[in-house]
Amino acid sequence: MSKDRVDKPWGCYVDYYRNSRVVFKKIMVLPNEKLSYQIHKKRHEFWYVVSGDGELTLQGDKIKMGPGDFVFIEKEEEHMIECVSDEVLVIYEMQIGSPSEDDIVRLEDKYGRTE
Predict the structure, then answer these.
(1) Average pLDDT per run of 10 along the chain, which is 115 residues long?
(2) Alpha-helix residue ranges (DSSP H) falling in the chain
(3) What are the Cα distances from residue 110, in Å, to 25, 38, 50, 78?
């Protein structure tokens, strides 16, 4: 079991398990921060919210998410989540398919990381 922490401008994530077909990680988004609006070409994602409140943007639609909520994100679906509470937004994510951190196409990014 991996448990490697990776710091990001929006917070961090911790890998719990990673192989060539699946990744399981914990994502922690700081208050008022958000992931990039992005797509993946080689993987699907399943998100389960553990704590905090978020606003998911999926294919342009805004969806409120809180503890116990979940979503399945298909390959090439545009998506992003923002922490909209005063507490850290904690999400468990499972990536299915061909997971790789190189498989991120950023469409918009608060931190200037678009291609």
Answers:
(1) 83 95 97 96 97 97 98 97 98 95 90 81
(2) none
(3) 22, 12, 24, 16
Q: How many CA atoms lie within 13 A of 63 on its CB side?
A: 17
- Residue corresponding to tokens 């937004």: 89
Question: In this structure, how many other beta carbons lie within 10 angstroms of the beta carbon of residue 109?
Answer: 18
What are the φ and ψ backbone dihedral angles of 95, each rounded to 5 degrees?
A: -100, 135
CB 54 within 8 A of CB 81: yes
User: CA 96 → CA 15, 22, 42, 43, 65, distances in Å?
Assistant: 14, 5, 9, 5, 21
Report the predicted TM-score, pTM, of the whole model to 2 decimal places.
0.92
E strand or H helix at 6, and its extent?
strand 5-8
Smallest CA-to-CA distance from 83 within 53, 57, 58 is with 53
Residue 42 near residue 62, CB atoms below 8 Å: no
